[in-house]
Specification:
4 strands, single chain, 4-stranded antiparallel β-sheet, binds zinc ion, alpha+beta
């Protein structure tokens, strides 16, 4: 399951160690969809095939936290079953 880290905390030792597990993967930077908001998350653990759907899911989650963005880590769960 993909996991995302708020961009400003990815350098913290606590999270850097965890993120190292994903080092083979290229993170996907996902910006808060709210216009003018600078907050973004780095998403790890996704695959090329599910990158787009996970990005969309993560954007929804990020927007729910706007404007506070207090979560340092967000798991990227699927909220609803998407027809394939
Ligand atoms: Zn925001």
């Amino acid at each position: 399951m993909p996991k995302s880290y708020r961009t400003d905390i990815t350098g913290k030792p606590k999270f850097a160690e965890e993120i190292q597990h994903y080092k083979k993967a290229t993170p996907e930077r996902v910006q808060c969809p709210s216009p003018g908001c600078e907050c973004s998350y780095e998403m790890y653990g996704h695959t090329a095939a599910d990158r787009e759907s996970n990005t969309a899911t993560l954007k929804e989650r990020i927007l729910r936290e706007h404007p506070d963005h207090t979560s340092e880590v967000l798991a990227v769960n699927q909220f609803r079953k998407r027809p394939r």
